[in-house]
Amino acid sequence: MSTSPSNGRPRGRPLELEDWLNRFIYHPLSGRLARALVPTGISPNAVSVMGGLFIAAAAWAYTGLDAPQSALLGFAFQVAWHVFDGADGDLARLTGKASPVGELVDGVCDYAGHAVLYVALAAFLDDRMGISAWPLATVAALSHGIQANHSESQRRTYLWWAYGVPWLKNSGAGEEGTLRRGNWFTGMFGWMADGYVRLATAMNPDAEAVDKAFLSCGDPSGLERLRALVKQRSRTSLLLQKSLGANPRAPMLFVSMALGSPIYFFVAEIVVLNLLLVASVQYHKAHSRQLAQELARA
What we know:
Shape: globular
Mean pLDDT: 88
Structural class: mainly alpha
Oligomer: single chain
CATH architecture: Up-down Bundle
Strand content: under 5%
Number of strands: 0
């Protein structure tokens, strides 16, 4: 992974954060799409919106078409979402438009698109098992949201610690940050950012001590030593973070719908992924405590 000699920030995506789907399929396609969009003048936020629409299109395909076309086309739309979900960030970096607002718009579009998906899946399952489909889908959707918050916040925390790349927690988007001082629209995003960060912090409060260790280190060479220690100690935590991310869900839903029902997907999210979430939260808390102790000694 190449870094800038001035600040150690990655020029691209760190390889240790990439699984094989991102490394060889999604992110190469995202980069090509972003470069093709630069001359068009389209904004990164518009790309985020298009990504959300692909999730809505997947909902239509999975529930509105006959098998096996429904599963195949739904999965294809989910793959397109993955590509657009990476392209908005790439486009923002290429055009110098990366910002806390853009980060939030990306998240809001993702959550809105998936809300449509879960409503469609619940309505589809309601025809087969009745009203009980709705609480099942609701618990699965809430589980998805919490799991996604944990996975993404741990990924962004790692980028902050290992490469100095800020995110919502430390980019001035919180309660005293710039988003709260704008109009009602940006103020609404500020409240969303605050809620997002509060949930992430609740699942890993011990990360605050590591943040303080980095903020208190004013020596560039010492800072690089701290970052090297984080990279060395984070291999297992990164594996857990990836397993709760977006990539495993598209194949899970594809298989479930190919079998004729979203119930298998819902149960996997509620049982399997929530057990993994509990394990990941406990591990990341212990990992952060250990890191804080080692950074203090270093």
